[in-house]
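Team,

Forwarding the record for the chain on the shared tracking sheet. I've put the sequence and predicted structure together so nobody has to dig through attachments.
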Amino acid sequence: MRTQNDEVSPQRSRSEADTIWATALRATAAVARQAASSEEDVLRAVANEFQRLDLRSGISLLQSDGTLEVRAQSISATVTRVLERTAGIKILGYRFKPDSVDVYKRAINSGEPAFTSDRAITIAQMMPKALQALTSLFTRLIGEENVIVAPLKQDAKTIGALNVAASWLTPEDCQMVAALAD
């Protein structure tokens, strides 16, 4: 949680945000040009670029049963190991029902990006019921940040979802995340 001394002027924050989005768009375009790369290589490269930009992200692909499967994420390796050991499940390959997670449901059903400032609720809704008691621990480990989820599209068809999390995200950033997801 920010204290009054941690506040950054909105003008400076917007300028920094614009720089980050421009860098992310350039990096995504560079990854997209790597046509010979496998799907996994592209997903990993995108997640690595988000991590380099100090953004937390995840890419989930729709499965035939309607679930989303986490295929890439940009949480640090150390935090990932702690989360996986604590929960007893792997993050990559984890499946969840998008209709059970409000922000994902809004994004997938509307075809538009969705913003939430309550990451804890998003985490709780994604977790199996038996693990929801760990929500506050998980939120502390990965950060209490704003989240934008955008439908991941290919040929105008939704094939999954991209989530991006950072403390400085605002609803104004939704269209930038949508551009990255298209």
